[in-house]
């Protein structure tokens, strides 16, 4: 049974934008009036050209999506396309207000209505396919100046319900092999719209990182008869030195082999494959712990002056929050749902760049020992 059935959570009201893309209002009040507001913009019909090409040297897919080159780039706050439509200015959200809203990305990496490209070489080494999937934008709040860390635990519970709803719907598409909800925050990360929002990708393949996790999980099970993720969480709890916080349903810790200067993983106490598998109590318990971790991230650094090669933005710590979920049809019993949160900031005025070793060879070099990062996060508030 879904959480929406168990509690008075957000009620979904789907509609269509002027170019045919779907928009879904998730209203705490259950009022369907917002979805009835028409999109009066003249957008024409959306035309996408996404494709995926297989790199035989490393056995992974690369997406090529030319329409993303034209995406909106750092508009002023009064021109934000993720704010509600008000005072005659139409945005991506036609309604004058919203609680949480999801819509198909106007500049997606993957889309369902893309043609199959012709092969560019008559050789099975060089595979080329349509990039058929789905990319959605999730606006957490209509407040442009807010952040995820400023949401209430109850609002985070609603966002969890939305993530579960979209994971189910995207996972039901025959083109989608894996569903990935995530949030990018901060100009340093590459965010081009500062309104608090996240995204959800429905990939047409299983990502390389997930394939490696699956391989490690299967190898561990073969050797030990146990689940790899259960053993990792149990070891971190037993060690205790990298634990940031915990409650009855979740635990947050810095991984022993952290790649990023400050990196925290959040695991549910009960192993599940994805967000829809969480109970209402488990979803409710995520918010208080996650908000505490986000606020510790923000407290790590004080705003620093902008220097050559650095960008301190608004003073909020830039981060990526990535939900690792099991693929739609594989590894459901082997992989464990968890959130990976990390920042590329290593001090108030220094960023961690993926330079020669990381970018060229995939070998990560972390300047901050994970135990030190954990201690700094524990004492940040």
Binned strand content: 15-25%
Helical segment tally?
7
What's the total count of β strands? 16
Low-confidence stretches: 1-5, 304-314
Reading the helices and strands in chain order gives HEEEEEEEHEEHHEEEHEEEEHH
Helical amount: 10-25%
Question: Which of globular, elongated, flat, extended, rod-shaped describes the shape?
Answer: globular
Give the strand order of the largest sheet, numbering strands 1, 2, ... along the chain. Answer: 1-2-5-7-9-8-13-14-12-11-10
Indicate the mean pLDDT.
93
Class by alpha and beta content: alpha+beta
Distance between the termini: 38 Å
Whole-angstrom Rg: 21 Å
Mind summarizing the main beta sheet?
Answer: 11 strands, antiparallel
Description:
This protein is α+β, with helices and mostly antiparallel strands and 381 residues long. It has seven helices and 16 strands. The chain has helices spanning 3-6, 153-171, 208-224, 228-239, 280-300, 356-361, 370-378; strands spanning 11-16, 22-27, 50-55, 60-65, 100-104, 128-130, 134-139, 178-185, 197-203, 243-246, 250-253, 262-268, 319-324, 338-343, 345-347, 350-351. The strands form three sheets. Strands 1-2-5-7-9-8-13-14-12-11-10 form an eleven-stranded antiparallel sheet, with helices on both faces. Helix 2 packs across helix 5. The longest helix has 21 residues, at 280-300. The two termini are 38 Å apart. The model is unreliable at 1-5 and 304-314 (pLDDT under 50).
